[in-house]
Design goal:
With about 70 residues, the chain is of the alpha+beta class. It has helices at about 15-25, 50-60, 60-69, and strands spanning about 5-10, 30-35, 40-45. It has a single domain, classed as 2-Layer Sandwich (Alpha-Beta Plaits), CATH 3.30.70.1530. Helix content is about 45%, strand content about 25%.
Length: about 70
């Protein structure tokens, strides 16, 4: 696996887990990273960054999908 890069920042653990589930469903490996009081950062392999962004966007903004149809 290559270098891990940030794809999203989650406000809480449940949001982070939801983002991980979206990525898992798209076949993209992810990790969570957090410093003490910092928000949770969702990381993906650099080579999967664009696909991960597309997957998150598609699953979190359904109105955009309808508008594009």
């Amino acid at each position: 696996m290559g270098r891990m890069v940030q794809v999203a920042v989650a406000g809480d653990v449940s949001e982070a887990e939801e983002l991980q589930e979206i990525l898992r469903a798209a076949g993209i490996e992810s990790e969570l990273s957090s410093a003490l009081d910092d928000p949770l950062t969702v990381l993906v392999p650099e080579s999967s960054l664009e696909d991960a962004q597309d997957a998150i966007e598609a699953m979190t903004e359904p109105d955009d999908l309808i508008a594009d149809a």
